[in-house]
Amino acid sequence: MKVKTILLVTSVAFVVGHLVACGDQVGPGDDLGDMDSVGFDVTPEDSGEVDVTPDDRDILAGPLSNGVLLYRNDAGDLVLAHKKRDLLVLPGDVGPVTRKFGQTYESLFGQWRFVRTDVVELPMAPGSVEQGEGLYGHIGDVIVLNFADEAGSVSATLIVESLEDESTRLYLGSGGLAGDSIAFPIRCGADDTFHGFGEQYNAIDQRGQAFDLFVSEQGIGRESQGEDDPMWWLTGNPHTTYFPMPYFINMATGSGLLLETEWRTSVDLCATDPAVAWFEVDAWRTVRMRLFHGPGPMEVIRQLGDVVGRPVPVPEWAFKTWLCTQGGPEAVAERIQKAKTIQIPFGAVWIQDWTGRRTNIGGGSGVQYRWQADPEHYPDLAGLIDGLHADGIRAFAYVNPFVMKNLPNHFDTMEGDGMLVSEPSSGNTYEIDSPAGVAGVPDLTWPATAEYVQDQLGRIVSDLGFDGWMADFGEYFPMDARVWTESNPGAYHNLFPVDWVRQSRDVMKKLRPEGDFVYFARSGWTGVQGVAQIHWVGDQEATWSQFDGLPTVVPAMLNLGLSGQPYVTHDIAGFSGGPSTKELYLRWTELGAFTPFMRTHDGNNRDDNWCWDRDYYTGEHFRRMAVIHDQIAADFFIPLAAASRQTGAPILRAMMLVFPEDRATWSISDQYMIGDKLLVAPILSPSNPDSVEEPDFDTATTARQVYLPAGDWYDVWNQDAAPIKGPQTITVNAPFGRPPVFSFGEPYAVLVGDEAVR
Fold it and tell me: What is the pLDDT of residue 139?
């Protein structure tokens, strides 16, 4: 474990007065204090048409060329509005806060803990409002809001820049005494929501929560006991995540906000003060934001994708079931034959241990971290894959960015050529503790390193014939490492997983430009959407835990969709903890059938975890669910995936996306829509939570509540039943093999073979 202390700068002079950014000349995190101070004349308010009369609103500035104006509401708050719609409400009595502090951090196995000392807060209050045009490179006009403290020692300026009809750029910069972070407030209205924030596992609306946005390991258990928890480095907490993102959708306004920053960001979403949400960026830099106009959540997701990019298309064959196979050629062949014998329709196998096997810390089975095959474990891997291809089966590998010191074939070469990040003072290779031992980290900011990594990954395709891989990890980048670009490592930490996933994209586009490939990753930050293909939701425990088990999978997938990642998957049935039980495996399989990419994982405890080939009942259940998945893929997943390239619309949709006018849907995190047609309410709890005994699988049911919005809903398992009228909440008893699934508006039959399932 490395413990570092940061003495954050508190005495750097900053430009006092107006801070004006230069459009695209200013990048995320660029410090406007490095630019010359620019003054400007305040021009009269634009005389063009306004959507409301002065009697309706106390208009302070605007409208800008994109229709955005600033007005003061009856409560005295400052409101950015667009075409009679409120987009963002700033408190009229509270302004930004600059903080000065010392900060220490600890890191161990991809978890991070930050501790502040000697915190000094410099709060500011709203001041004057100005409007100008053609300022310092701005083509369009801007609105400027000025803030200052009572002593005049610190100030802030919020610049509202007209972009286009669908979004507005905001710049927040500070002046006066230098600080170490800047926090800004947003008013919490009675109906305001906070949906998104990347991959979050607890819920889809984060209102009332306070947490950090910083790329980290998910944690095992995630039921943290607070800052003093001695197991913080293992457990994580309800908001530790591989893929955070400073972005949210507000259903009450139909708008969205993206902080275009790579720095660690902390949010307090009406938790400390029910009337105010706070967003704090840990950097003495201008904070650049993008305000998406909507006017609804689907429009916001599309507008987000226009800015951050959309994932690489997925070939149709990827929508067939994927089976985890490992243990050497004989074990792979045996599992494939079992699947064929019981007629499981599958299209790919995942050979996780192609690089060799090892024992994990704390037990369990792991793999060697390297980009080369283990010739003893798989003596003719290329031949094995050729045989799979001849049988119509695709093959996936496993890779991660660790460069293991105990496997010198990569480490020695990369260290000798300066391709690994280095210690800040000595210049020696920065060695970190990975789950498999001491490792170096590739410096992906240097083109030579990226070329080397891509060459190694490319050989997996060109020499062995793999059709893709799991791109694991990306959370361990050290906060104080030196990189080739001399980027600030505190900021680059969150960008490293984006660069890591980019290697997969660049390799595959070069070797298979026709798009015949699949890669799936777990970590990310803003911008990963444009280089990603599929994201899986990480290493859940093989349990029913609401903190880290099966119930966390659904909100994680939905939040990814809300955050611009439409292609999602998960491990059937979890990874850590366990061992998994038969009942858990059956229910997780049902969820997999109604997920775009149905994929199994043997988990960390592969010898004891339940699996589809453990007994006849499980095998038949899995086969049936795989058949159903094929049908859902043909009818929904494949066409929805194609459409998402243009709209960014997720395949699995939070209820609020399909029924935005129904406020009851805004907080639903345990059921979802496939497109706008099928409602899926997976079983996420055991049939008898008070018993450790497995149920009678032929007779047991699990009851759960399902909310049906307004309209006609048809039970896909019983086509003879009359439609159920919504809106209402119903209780559904679900036997094994029949999770609650309803079609909207018209009947839809789930078929197995030629017969409707009754």
Answer: 52
Q: Over the Cα atoms of the chain, what is R_g?
A: 27
Token pair of 298, please? Answer: 């689907």
Let me know: does 80 contact 256? Beta carbons within 8 Å. no
Q: Residue with structure tokens 């809001």?
A: 145
DSSP state letter for 510: H
Q: Does domain 664-756 match CATH 2.40.50.140?
A: no
Residues of the chain with pLDDT under 50: 1-55, 136, 754-758
H, E, C per residue of 240-300: CCCCEEEEEEECCCCEEEEECCCCCEEEEEEEEECCEEEEEECCCCCEEEEEECCCCHHHH
For the domain bounded by 317-399+443-649, which CATH number is listed?
3.20.20.80
Cα separations (Å) of 673 from 318, 564, 650?
21, 16, 10
| CA dihedral sign, ordered 489, 490, 491, 494 | positive
CA atoms within a 13 Å half-sphere pointing along the CA-CB vector of 307: 26
Per-residue model confidence (pLDDT) at position 24 = 31
- Could you tell me which residues are beta bridge partners of residue 742? 679, 715
Distance, CA of 151 to CA of 155 (rounded, Å)? 10
* Measured CA angle at 528 (ends 671, 240), to 5 deg: 60
Residue 56: per-residue pLDDT: 60
Sheet containing 58-61: give its strands across.
58-61, 68-72, 78-82, 85-90
Burial-class residue 84 by CB neighbours within 10 Å (0-12, 13-18, 19+): exposed
| Token duo for residue 122 | 């410099």
Task: Please name which of 286, 301, 262 lies closest in space to residue 158, comparing C-alpha atoms.
Answer: 286
Whole-number Å distance between alpha carbons of 562 and 522: 16
* Structure confidence at residue 86 (pLDDT): 96
Please, are residues 542 and 526 in contact by the beta-carbon 8 Å criterion?
A: no
* DSSP tag of 39: -
- Alpha helices (runs of H) in 140-216, residue ranges in sequence order: none
Say if CB 471 and CB 524 are below 8 A apart: no
Q: Could you identify the residue written with the tokens 């406020």? A: 663
Q: What pLDDT shows up at residue 732?
A: 98
SS3 637: helix
pLDDT value of residue 362: 65
Q: Does residue 252 sit in helix, strand or coil?
A: coil
Q: What is the pLDDT of residue 177?
A: 76
DSSP state for residue 152 in the 8-state scheme: S
In 277-395, where does DSSP find H-type helix?
Answer: 297-308, 329-341, 381-390
> How far is it, in rounded angstroms, from Cα 264 to Cα 262?
7
CA neighbor of 158 nearest in space, from 282, 21, 34: 21
| 544 vs 489: CA distance, rounded Å | 38
Residue 466 CB-density burial (10 A; 0-12 exposed, 13-18 middle, 19+ buried):
buried
* pTM given for the model: 0.92
Query: What residues contact 297, with CB distance under 8 A and at least 6 apart?
Result: 195, 249, 251, 254, 256, 562, 656, 657, 660
List the end-to-end C-alpha distance of the chain, in Å, as a whole number.
57
Neighbours of 691 (CB within 10 A): 9
Token pair in block for residue 38:
């620019």
Q: Which residue has the tokens 């971290």?
A: 369
Q: How many CB atoms lie within 10 A of CB 311?
A: 24
What local confidence, expressed as pLDDT, does residue 658 receive?
A: 98
Domain positions in the chain: 2-187+255-293, 317-399+443-649, 664-756
Instruction: State the Cα–Cα distance between residues 242 and 204, nearest whole angstrom.
Output: 16
| Phi, psi (degrees; rounded to nearest 5) at 450 | -60, -40
DSSP state of 744: E
Structure confidence at residue 131 (pLDDT): 85
| pLDDT confidence of residue 578 | 87
Strand ranges in 522-665 using DSSP code E only, listed in sequence order: 534-536, 568-569, 652-654
Instruction: Tell me the CA distances in angstroms from 703 to 580, 663, 683, 685, 714, one per residue in order.
Output: 21, 24, 8, 9, 18
